[in-house]
Amino acid sequence: MSVTDLSETRAWEAAAAVPDPEIPVLTVADLGILRGVSLKDGVAVARVTPTYTGCPAVLAIELAVEAALRDAGFDARIERVISPPWTTDWITEEGREKLRAYGIAPPAAAGNSVRALFGETVVACPRCGSEDTEKLSEFGSTPCKAHYRCKACLEPFEHFKCI
User: Would you say 106 and 99 are in contact if contact means Cβ atoms under 8 Å apart?
Assistant: First the structure.
């Protein structure tokens, strides 16, 4: 492995470890919004895709990724990549498990599911696994989550909506 490859790997690892400000158990890599990190003329360039256009955390995430790269010893720059747009399908399996363990039901696969895109999917309780749940509100603590309640264990929970 070349010095450049090692440096790019180190830059990726620094950027990938940045937590999401809204769901701190997830990293930007878990969410799939860190598209890549490369070295260009000695500058670590991180490519980041917002989860959606109006996401209030976009700037905070970009600044945190830039700071992580600088803290790792790199000159840094962020490139916002909007095409192709992010989808919840980009959340890693590890990220989905972290959501579940944190008490948030992960989104269904959306790529080929019109039903999932329009919220017509079964949402399993992240605590007990029951599929006997009901939506209480289309919007939760953030626009990308909805409030649900499990009819089996009676616990409320959030569901990360399919985008």
Answer: yes
Helix axes 58-71, 3-16, angle to 10 degrees: 140
Q: Is the torsion defined by CA of 131, 135, 138, 139 positive or negative?
A: negative
Nearest to 19, CA basis, from 80, 86, 68: 68
Amino acid 157: pLDDT: 97
Ranges for all domains in the chain classified under CATH 3.30.300.130: 3-80
Is the domain 3-80 a CATH 3.30.300.130 member?
Answer: yes
Residue 124: both structure tokens together: 């399993």
CA 40 – CA 49 distance, rounded (Å): 19
pLDDT tens digits for range 97-152: 999 999 999 998 765 555 555 655 789 999 999 999 999 999 888 888 999 999 99
